């Protein structure tokens, strides 16, 4: 039996021997192919983003064979009759050709668009999983920073790709981009002229966005994704708390064959979902919008979901501006554009990048963490995350304030005012509600540990009292709950002379001490597991042999 357990599978031994004879890489291959990966559904969220990126590379390569990144005006002479003879850019004409004249072109173009949406969505939910479980803590802070950079670059990649077809909808988005760029103090005019090659819309923006979209940004994304994966591989994957799991081991299945087979199947599943969406769900029908001209505008237009929060910020922002030198244009700061363009993105991205270091500063926690937290067990972190989601969600929703107003027959003015109120009130409410929910869930865990789980069996005791029999929680469930670790707090106690620790004496130190006391500590401690549940079991056993025992089950 022991020989079977210690033997190397043929699928690994053969290739290892082959490579070792030629490259001396057997030990490296055997060690890495047997690397253990934990098994939890939430760990697959990041793989959605990874596989969507692969689909983007494949479909994008196909599209480059036919797309022409030129703004030269031509008369359309393709298959789509309603636009025959209409003057348009070569970029738009080639996009129509891809949609109607290239075999499979529309399917691939829509797969590319759906994969882009899933790529950004996959990164967002993966980042939320990492945040809520505390998987960004030491030693993974660098990987967390890489993830924030990846998300930022993905938004830029989406913006440049969205603008390439040069249709009316993407042109409206490009016009907003130009307005934001030119509003930036000092550098706005230079940046706009550099981007558009002169006065808007210029002749060069599509070609320049094309270079960014297919070459520069994907190259950086590929390098960062590779670094992200290498760091994850070297540092090992975090795991959820449970039986036999601690910071010194990883419980799961080996990379080969278990994880490799699962990953391969999951890639095919992701590909099938993207292909199914592209086949049955129309996205970005550019032929209905027509070519972009700066004089035209359409009502009810919104960008892709990942840019919706910036659109919402622009729509609800009051028309504020600062005139530094009277009414001269040179001294005008259009806050109604600068603030929505920079502040929401700055709050979200800067907050994400700094959070691991701020949390460590507040708690003084310099330990390595390889076991993830349950979100309920760090209520302040979870509440902060839900506040950020609510902040993003309100802005995203208000990006369609005209549609909300039209469909629900609400004044656009009141919709906008309501959005301005919600952007302040809703995150605060989300924080309070989430915090109370986390404490309630911790109390629920405490009850399970102390009293067991409800069995559904009602017992009548000899003195007439009815009780529900509780049974001990399953071993794996109890181990999962007992994986809870108190959030560390800084040592702030004064010494015998009444002097606080060295780092806590100034105003900043006192603030840090108060924050640590509020953020850290054990909010709802788990009991020792010897509560009333065992007494109830004992009562049930006493009454189980006589006629006085009348049990009801449901």
Provide a descriptive summary of the structure in words.
With about 550 residues, the chain is mainly α. Helix content is about 60%, strand content about 5%. The protein is built from 20 helices and nine strands. The protein has helices at about 1-5, 10-25, 25-35, 45-65, 90-100, 105-130, 140-165, 170-185, 190-195, 205-235, 255-280, 285-290, 310-315, 335-365, 380-400, 400-410, 410-450, 475-480, 505-520, 530-545; strands at about 35, 75, 85-90, 255, 320-325, 330-335, 455-460, 465-470, 550-554. The strands form four sheets. Strands 8-7-9 form a three-stranded antiparallel β-sheet. A two-stranded antiparallel ribbon has the order 1-4. A two-stranded antiparallel ribbon has the order 2-3. Residues about 530-554 have low confidence and may be disordered.
Defining key terms:
single chain; 554 residues; mainly alpha; two-stranded antiparallel sheet; globular; disordered C terminus
Structural class: mainly alpha
Q: Beta fraction of the residues?
A: 5-15%
Distance between the termini: 47 Å
Q: Which oligomerization state do the chains in this entry correspond to?
A: single chain
Rg over alpha carbons: 30 Å
Silhouette: globular
Number of DSSP helical runs:
20
Low-pLDDT stretches: 529-554
- Report the major sheet: 3 strands, antiparallel
Tell me the total number of β-strands: 9
Cofactor: heme
Protein name: Cytochrome bc1 complex cytochrome b subunit
EC number: 7.1.1.8
Catalytic activity: a quinol + 2 Fe(III)-[cytochrome c](out) = a quinone + 2 Fe(II)-[cytochrome c](out) + 2 H(+)(out)
């Amino acid at each position: 039996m022991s020989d079977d357990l210690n033997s190397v599978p043929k699928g690994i031994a053969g290739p290892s021997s082959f490579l070792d004879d030629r490259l001396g890489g057997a030990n490296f291959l055997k060690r890495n192919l047997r690397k253990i990966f934990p098994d939890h559904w939430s760990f697959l969220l990041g793989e959605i983003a990874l596989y969507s990126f692969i689909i983007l590379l494949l479909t994008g390569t196909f599209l480059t064979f036919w797309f022409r990144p030129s703004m030269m005006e031509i008369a359309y002479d393709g298959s789509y009759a309603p636009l025959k003879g209409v003057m348009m850019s070569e970029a738009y004409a080639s996009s129509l050709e891809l949609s109607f004249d290239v075999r499979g072109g529309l399917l691939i173009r829509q797969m590319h668009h759906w994969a882009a949406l899933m790529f950004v969505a996959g990164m967002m939910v993966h980042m939320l999983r990492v945040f809520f479980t505390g998987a960004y803590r030491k030693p993974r802070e660098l990987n967390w920073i890489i993830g924030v950079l990846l998300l930022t670059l993905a938004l830029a990649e989406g913006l440049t790709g969205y603008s390439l077809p040069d249709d009316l909808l993407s042109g409206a988005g490009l016009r907003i981009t130009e307005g934001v760029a030119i509003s930036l103090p000092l550098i706005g005019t230079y940046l706009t002229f550099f981007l558009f090659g002169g006065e808007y819309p210029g002749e060069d923006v599509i070609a320049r966005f094309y270079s960014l979209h297919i070459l520069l940004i994907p190259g950086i994304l590929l390098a960062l994704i590779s670094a992200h994966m290498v760091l994850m591989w070297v540092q090992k994957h975090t795991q959820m708390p449970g039986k036999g799991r601690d910071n010194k081991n990883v419980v799961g299945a080996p990379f080969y064959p278990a994880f490799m087979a699962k990953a391969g199947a999951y890639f095919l599943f992701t590909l099938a979902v993207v292909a199914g969406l592209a086949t049955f769900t129309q996205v970005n029908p550019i032929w209905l919008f027509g070519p972009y001209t700066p004089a035209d505008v359409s009502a009810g237009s919104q960008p892709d979901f990942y840019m919706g929060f910036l659109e919402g910020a622009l729509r609800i922002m009051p028309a504020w501006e600062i005139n530094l030198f009277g009414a001269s244009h040179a001294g005008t700061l259009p806050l109604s554009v600068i603030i929505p363009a920079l502040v929401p993105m700055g709050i979200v991205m800067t907050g994400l990048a700094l959070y691991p270091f701020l949390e460590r500063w507040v708690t003084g926690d310099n330990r390595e963490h390889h076991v993830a937290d349950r979100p309920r067990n760090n209520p302040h972190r979870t509440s902060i995350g839900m506040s950020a989601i609510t902040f993003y969600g309100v802005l995203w929703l208000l990006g369609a304030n005209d549609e909300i107003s039209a469909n629900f027959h609400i004044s656009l003015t009141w919709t906008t005012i309501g959005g301005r109120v919600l952007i302040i009130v809703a995150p605060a409410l989300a924080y309070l509600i989430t915090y109370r929910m986390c404490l309630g869930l911790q109390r629920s865990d405490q009850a399970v540990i102390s009293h067991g789980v409800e069995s559904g069996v009602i017992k009548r005791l000899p003195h007439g009292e009815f009780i529900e029999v509780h049974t001990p929680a399953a071993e794996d469930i109890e181990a999962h709950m007992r994986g809870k670790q108190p959030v560390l707090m800084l040592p702030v106690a004064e010494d015998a002379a009444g002097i606080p620790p060295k780092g806590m004496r100034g105003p900043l130190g006192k603030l840090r001490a108060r924050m640590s006391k509020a953020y850290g500590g054990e909010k709802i401690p788990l009991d020792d597991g010897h509560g009333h549940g065992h007494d109830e079991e004992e009562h049930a056993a006493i009454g189980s042999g006589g006629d006085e025992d009348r049990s009801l089950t449901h």
